[in-house]
Amino acid sequence: MEAVPARARVYVACVVLGALVCLLSLPTVRASWWAMTLLAVLYAGGEWLARRRIAGAFHPVLLAGAFLLPPAAAALVALPGALLSPVERRPVGLRRIWRAAQLALAVWAAARVHGALGGRHAVVAPDFPYALVPAGAAVLAFCLVLTVLDGGILALAEHVPVRAVWRGLFLRSLAPLAVHGLAGLMMAVLWRSPYGPPASLLVLLPMCVSWWAFAQYHRERGAHQATIRALVQAVDIKDEYTRGHSERVGQASMMIARELGMDDERVEVLRFAGILHDVGKLGVPTRLLRKDGPLTPEERRVIELHPEYGHEMVRGISFLGEARAAVLHHHERLDGSGYPYGLMGSQIPESARVVAVADAFDAMTSTRSYRRGRPVAAALEELERCAGAQFDPRMVAALVRGVERCGWHPAVTADGVQSRRVHPPAPPVSSRTGAHR
């Protein structure tokens, strides 16, 4: 089971307690119980489909409940489905309880705002366009509660910097939730119409089609990620130097990106950049990668082609974005002495400057068959000394902050099959950092 920090568990307990308080005033009106049960079953069925990646989140059903029911009843609609929702990471039980409490609070807040603005009367009438006003306010409340709670758990459990955790989170969530809110309002109006609840289900049909198309996109992306994992494993098999190295460079790149305040999507791209930075070694003869002793100038020129090989391998994977530039340029240096193109300063893509620091850091701190790794503090001091000439000072400072806050656990990455291995000759700064390739 993955360890969850104590402060995160306390935070989850407080959110669960808040949700229970919201549920204390459950209505006793039979019609509310009937509608609540039907919506809860519908939402649970949607989560069952989502678990099998057939559909996406059934937020229109939750928002329809907020437009139709008293706050406590609307909050209860979310509980069965949330407790059945798909969870890919452990601890599964805690994550499901967290999701249920979070949704219950968000739906309760949406229903309270909607009722306070006279929204339920506007739905029954129906009164357009005024009905859009309380519905829009309810969607804003729903989105605000979700993002505030999500940001809190990211800061406490995932160690995302507080100054960056909520940056852009609300706006990214608002657009899809606004669409879901409009669908929920249409469901509520049809529910109260002479056609009754069956007619409201028709609103979900076009959304199910879009969910299916979105699921197809994610399957394609999953296939690309499986290809990436296969490429990295092939590199690890070919060159013992990189065994586990690529994954750790991906983690360090992600740490730097978060400290720089990048959004979640870009953080993920930087993680891929770190993972794939050495994939071009598949195009380098194995005898050169495993050679004992110094390389000849010609052999070094062959090895220095690996960034270009790697770029050719990944250029067709569109979702990688700027990660492709990092694969090509992660051996460039600020002073222009790097390769393959000798770029200087800001000419080097930002993603490449991130990966360069992450690569050197892991190279220095990892213990291999031919040498022991440096202490983390010594490696950080070396990076700071080389900042401005070889490395971007911003990236180095971000890594230092990230390590101070989250720590770093260097690993043994060689099997000890070779008792000795000599680094190829490198310019002075590179030999000091250990990032010779």
Coarse shape:
elongated
Let me know the average pLDDT.
83
Please give the share of residues in helix. Answer: 55-70%
Structural class by sheet pairing and helices: mainly alpha
Amount of beta strand = under 5%
* N-to-C CA distance: 37 Å
Domains (count): 2
- Beta strands, count: 0
Uncertain runs: 412-437
Major sheet characteristics = none
**Rg (CA only):** 27 Å
Please explain how this structure is put together.
The chain is an all-alpha fold and 437 residues long. The protein folds into two domains: 207 residues, no CATH class; 195 residues, Hypothetical protein af1432. It is 66% helix and 0% strand. The protein has 21 helices and no strands. The longest helix is centred in the middle third of the chain and has 35 residues.
List the helices and strands and how they pair.
Elements: H1 6-22, H2 30-51, H3 59-68, H4 71-83, H5 92-116, H6 119-124, H7 132-157, H8 162-165, H9 169-192, H10 197-200, H11 204-238, H12 245-259, H13 264-276, H14 286-289, H15 297-303, H16 306-314, H17 323-329, H18 350-365, H19 376-386, H20 393-406, H21 428-433
Using brief descriptors, characterize the structure shown.
437 residues, mainly alpha, Hypothetical protein af1432, elongated, disordered C terminus
Question: Nutshell version of this structure?
Answer:
Helix content is 66%, strand content 0%.
